[in-house]
Task: inverse folding
């Protein structure tokens, strides 16, 4: 269940409180906002119309799907500009019409298209101007769920949007009181699942933004690794990323004997055992593999990068793969210089970036620098996996809306996970991202996700050509998904890139690139940073 | 009745280990697991990795090329079967039978005679290597639970193969 799957306007209560100002503003007889949508409703009648729509909504929620379907598709609009009497006629008509079986999922889409038009001035102007014409296809799993619970959920979403809009405007007092109101509303909603859980995190993030803007949204490196590991186990996104990237790297390395993989975020190195094992079984014998892992420096002095390298070496030794490891400690990718990676002359290079490139977008220069030095290494393949989301818009409200949608979908998919404590800790991983997107700004805001299309443009402009991920990667990804019990995950292939999503909403996108053969452009000079290098 | 026959012929399979091994080479995974519970001798026999090698890759077409040293290094065929192949097989054939909606008998047939593809073998080997690695890094994995076939409390550290054991219908 996401926040937008039932975009039925809530009742008269919210109309009178949050839009009384807008009602008062429209001095003319006919409500201006609805007139824009083609409905003539007198401002004085708004309350009546709201009540009737609420009745209609209750009716639709409580009737079987076949009837709702009929309502959505077979209705003839006699004078739709007269909203009040039209709703009345609908209600009376369907009190004596029955039995038109239709498929449930199409009824959901019709319903949402139908009700999208009815969305009216209980929320500020921008919402209507946004034109949300195609809400996601979430199956309404429990249509008979308590109408009040759904009501509260929908109200929460509306309030979140209003609050975000007032934050953007700078209206701190309104935002603050909205947050208080939402917190009381949260107590009426089931906080352990669905919209309650997501709303809780977003409300926390909003209040952080208002009252503790300097607070850091990240855990320590140690905590990050643990959250990452639990997220790895609870849902298939990271596994999909690793397996797809490995498959692409394997295919690119075919026939070469001296391999060098550069991992932009080593963590526990969970991606590499599968690659090492696949290389061990390569016909013709295993090649020599070197892995360079980049990661944050450990604060307490013990070299965690080297520790992981030792474990990987042990695994490689067991399966007879000649192996070497180097760790490069850097807090930011643009602090890394190519000479630190010590790429040998005969080595074939693969660069692997799992959700790291977006962290550089706080300054365009950083990304250009990094892409330039990647290119200077002449890699055989660059695997890029990124979140498929638009969380880097300049306007706060756009980011907020997008991330609400995105993370609701992700939490929805996490519901299917039953293993504990993986599920709870995985939520903390996601919550950290939400917090960063909503409450941080400037350099601190590192979760600057951009959709695949934008990454394609950026990488193309930086001198990379796309490599198609083959059908093997697609088959493997599908097989991996069959192992997960939840059936909502889907893998799609589009122009050589793979995406994994939940119920047709893509969430993570994987692509592969190679350096175009032109001479690389001069790298942009960067200020000398403080860097610790260990080997 | 069979006992009487045995007494007459004075034949005990336990005296003929090679025959026993030949028989056990041909049973399926579940039967081999059951055989391990019969007596001490059968238990030690059924722990021979070579028996499990047959079970793991008997139905693979074409047979995987020289995986033995890798499988042995990463924990052996018995562990590979318990930790990776069996859940994978079960899950995949569940999917298959659910899709086809066939009678129970045919379902059983599908489950036992399924021919594996190289991709499935590859995937299970990848998962197996991750299991091995997690034991290295974290000291244990939940694969341990399936491997020792006990229901003792799982270790505090977790494995990426957890999801194979906690099937849930959404």
Result:
């Amino acid at each position: 269940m996401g926040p937008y799957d039932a975009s039925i306007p809530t009742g008269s209560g919210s109309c009178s409180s949050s839009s009384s100002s807008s009602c008062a503003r429209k001095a003319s007889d006919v409500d201006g906002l609805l007139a824009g949508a083609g409905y003539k409703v007198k401002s004085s009648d708004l309350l009546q119309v709201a009540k009737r729509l609420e009745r209609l909504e209750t009716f639709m929620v409580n009737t079987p799907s076949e009837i709702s379907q009929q309502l959505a598709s077979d209705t003839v609009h006699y004078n739709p500009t007269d909203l009040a009497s039209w709703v009345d006629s609908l209600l009376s008509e369907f009190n004596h019409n029955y039995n038109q079986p239709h498929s449930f999922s199409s009824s959901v889409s019709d319903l949402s298209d139908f009700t999208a038009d009815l969305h009216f001035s209980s929320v500020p102007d921008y919402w209507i101007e946004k034109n949300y014409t195609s809400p996601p296809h979430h199956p309404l799993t429990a249509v008979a769920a308590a109408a009040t619970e759904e009501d509260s959920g929908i109200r929460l979403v509306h309030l979140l949007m209003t609050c975000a809009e007032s934050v953007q405007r700078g209206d701190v007092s309104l935002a603050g009181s909205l947050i208080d109101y939402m917190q009381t509303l949260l107590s009426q909603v089931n906080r352990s699942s669905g919209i309650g859980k997501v709303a809780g995190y977003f409300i926390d993030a909003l209040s952080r933004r208002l009252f503790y803007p300097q607070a850091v949204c990240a855990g320590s490196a140690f905590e990050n690794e643990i959250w990452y590991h639990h997220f790895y186990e609870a849902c298939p996104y990271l596994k999909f990323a690793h397996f797809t990237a490995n498959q692409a790297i394997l295919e690119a390395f075919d026939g070469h004997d001296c391999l060098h993989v550069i991992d932009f975020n080593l963590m526990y190195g969970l991606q590499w055992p599968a690659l090492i094992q696949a290389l061990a079984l390569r016909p013709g014998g295993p090649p020599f593999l070197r892995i360079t892992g980049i990661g944050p420096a450990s604060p307490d002095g013990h070299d965690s990068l080297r520790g992981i390298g030792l474990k990987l070496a042990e695994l490689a030794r067991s399966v007879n793969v000649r192996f070497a490891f180097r760790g490069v400690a850097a807090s930011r990718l643009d602090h890394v210089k190519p000479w630190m990676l010590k790429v040998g002359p005969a080595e074939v290079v693969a660069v692997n970036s799992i959700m790291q490139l977006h962290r550089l977008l706080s300054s365009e220069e950083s990304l250009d620098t990094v892409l330039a030095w990647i290119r200077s290494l002449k890699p055989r393949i660059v695997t890029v996996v990124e979140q498929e989301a638009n969380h880097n818009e300049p306007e706060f409200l756009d980011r907020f809306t997008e991330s609400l949608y995105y993370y609701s979908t992700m939490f929805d998919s996490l519901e299917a996970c039953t293993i504990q404590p993986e599920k709870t800790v995985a939520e903390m991983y996601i919550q950290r991202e939400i917090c960063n997107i909503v409450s941080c700004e400037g350099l601190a805001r590192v979760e600057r996700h951009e959709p695949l299309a934008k990454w394609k443009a950026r990488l193309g402009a930086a001198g990379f050509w796309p490599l198609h991920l083959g059908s093997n990667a697609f088959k493997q990804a599908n097989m991996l998904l069959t192992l997960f019990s939840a059936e909502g995950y889907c893998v799609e292939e589009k122009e050589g890139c793979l995406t994994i999503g939940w119920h047709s909403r893509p969430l993570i996108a994987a692509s592969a690139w190679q350096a175009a053969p032109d001479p690389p452009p001069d790298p942009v000079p960067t200020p000398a940073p403080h860097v610790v290098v260990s080997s | 009745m069979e006992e009487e026959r045995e007494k007459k012929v004075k034949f005990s399979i336990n005296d003929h280990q090679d025959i026993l091994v030949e028989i056990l080479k041909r049973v399926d995974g579940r039967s081999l697991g059951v055989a391990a519970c019969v007596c001490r001798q059968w238990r030690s026999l059924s722990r021979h990795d070579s028996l499990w090698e047959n079970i793991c890759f008997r139905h693979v077409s074409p047979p995987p090329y020289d995986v033995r040293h890798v499988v042995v290094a990463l924990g052996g065929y018995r562990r590979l079967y318990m930790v990776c192949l069996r859940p994978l097989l079960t899950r995949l054939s569940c999917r298959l039978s659910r899709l086809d909606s066939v009678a129970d008998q045919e379902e059983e047939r599908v489950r036992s005679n399924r021919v594996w593809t190289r991709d499935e073998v590859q995937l299970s080997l990848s998962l197996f290597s991750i299991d091995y690695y997690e034991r290295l890094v974290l000291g244990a994995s939940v694969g341990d639970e399936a491997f020792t076939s006990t229901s003792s409390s799982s270790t505090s550290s977790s494995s990426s193969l957890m999801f194979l054991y906690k099937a849930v219908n959404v």
In short: Strands of chain A lie at 258-263, 288-295, 322-329, 348-354, 381-387, 464-467, 489-494, 497-502, 505-515, 532-533.
